[in-house]
What we know:
Order of helices and strands: EEEEEEEEEEE
Strand content: over 45%
Radius of gyration: 13 Å
Shape: globular
Distance between the termini: 40 Å
Mean pLDDT: 97
Helix content: under 10%
Amino acid sequence: QLQLKESGGGLVQPGGSLRLSCAASGSTLESYTMGWFRRAPGKAREGISCLNMADDRTWYEDSVKGRFTISRDDKKNTIYLSMNNLKPEDTGIYYCQGWDKQIYWGQGTQVTVSS
Length: 115
């Protein structure tokens, strides 16, 4: 069973950067589609980026295009979300998701963008 654990969140000023990590265990990821979701305060959880591990295709939600990059390290069985030029509206809990025959979620990591 796939287990996911996010890390790397924190408090950052507007314009700053963070890199989130999602470490997977219990399975390798080559058959999965991996995604990052965000739950902003008072809003529903939304998808912001995903990566098809079989063919490296990526997708980004419009508000993060050009600022966020999803990447992988197969040796570490980990995916990343590099976030640049962060804005206050990027504040929220960030979740990692793995989807194959089932959907798996991590516990989330808090990102707060504030001066």
